[in-house]
Design brief:
Lysozyme, 10 helices, 2 strands, mainly alpha, about 200 residues, about 60% helix, about 0% strand
């Protein structure tokens, strides 16, 4: 293409000016299409890499609840045994009444929170995947309560808080996640728990 363009340009006045302009436009168009093709190839390569990443299996993180229970009961070996306190039945009851009136209610938050304790999927995962299936578990009282107990054994430990956890801590963590006991946003939730008859040391 460069050679042909050079021939036409060297012919001077014998070459029609319009043809010269057309050839130049064709040359620019040809270069643009070549660059565009290279760009599309790069985009395709990036898309393929991204698709491959999505297709890779997700590594499942399991919670060693059994080991925590052994530490809590003092059956763990050595000096690493953890002193874990569990959430009381009364505190659970207050949480249940605040969340749903302690009844079987439809999932809320667009289906993200389910069951009498309004437990989310990520919460259930942290609680040890009790029952094998999220909704099947959290929509029943027993399995939901086991999930909460396991979740608190993981996130509401004396070793994390720096003191023996109370119903206030459990309630605020249930509402605001692992750091909920420190968050001002969970104080209003705690007041609702108190309205149900629970105090800090229940």
């Amino acid at each position: 293409m460069v050679f042909i363009l050079g021939i036409y340009e060297n012919q001077g006045s014998s070459l029609n000016w319009q043809k010269t302009k057309l050839l130049k436009l064709l040359w620019k168009r040809w270069r643009f299409l070549g660059q565009r093709k290279s760009s599309l190839n790069l985009e395709d390569e990036s898309s393929n890499k991204l698709a491959a990443l999505h297709e890779q299996p997700v590594k499942k993180t399991s919670v060693k609840i059994k080991e925590l229970d052994e530490h809590a009961s003092g059956s763990g070996s050595g000096s690493n045994a953890l002193s874990l306190e569990g959430i009381s039945s009364k505190c659970l009851s207050c949480i249940c009444h605040v969340e749903s009136g302690c009844a079987h209610v439809p999932c809320s938050d667009g289906g993200a929170s389910c069951g009498p304790y309004q437990i989310r999927f990520a919460y259930w995962i942290d609680g040890g995947c009790q029952g094998g299936k999220w909704r099947g578990c959290v929509e029943t009282f027993g399995c939901a309560e086991n999930t909460i107990k396991a979740y608190m054994r993981r996130h509401a430990r004396r070793e994390i808080l720096g003191y023996k956890p109370t119903c206030k801590d459990y309630a605020r963590i249930h509402n605001g996640g692992p750091s909920g006991y420190m968050s001002d946003s969970t104080l209003s939730y705690w007041r609702k728990i108190q309205d149900q008859g629970c105090n800090e040391y229940d």
